[in-house]
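Q: Got a minute? One more chain.
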Amino acid sequence: MEQKYNSSTLNAELMRLKEFCKQEGEVVTYLKDEKFECEETPAQWLAYVERGCFKYVTRGISDNKKHITWFSFEGEFVADYPRFLYGHSAQSTIQAMMPSRVYRLSGKRLRQFFSQSIESMEMRAIIAEHILCQFHERYLDLHCATPRERYDMLMQRCPGIANELPQYAIASFLNITPQMLSRIRKEISLNGNK
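A: Always. Here it is, folded:
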């Protein structure tokens, strides 16, 4: 799978966090479908994804169906942030979608790092702002973009995802049915990607 964010696109603070994960974290390999965090159990980890992909799965309130709400790809971080910092219950099950290798830190270790200096506290704020911006963009996409536009944005973010992940997973993330995803893909192939 292609890397979505390379070193030049990450801001300096996220690069510092990546380097901290690589220096202080443990290297862990997850098999396909292995869980990184489990919904409703204490969240524990933040990791830099060196290779692979993770999905965030949350059960619906009324239908109890599994909904894929987020992905963490190569070159990104995976965590139930900020819940892992304090061991609060995870809101999602985070699961490897393919064999994946990460540099993993505990919430306790990251809290210790953040408390070392004003610069590390600023880093904490910047990380929180970055995550807030990501979630805000996702919220706006779900409310303001058409299913086709959401599909196109996902393909731009991760061009190889259609070959790596099952159709149901992509459809769930886009908040559409697999049938609608099939129609979008068929329309794209008929219209020559326009």
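A: Helices lie at 12-24, 83-86, 107-114, 118-144, 147-157, 161-164, 167-174, 178-191.
Q: Perfect, thanks.
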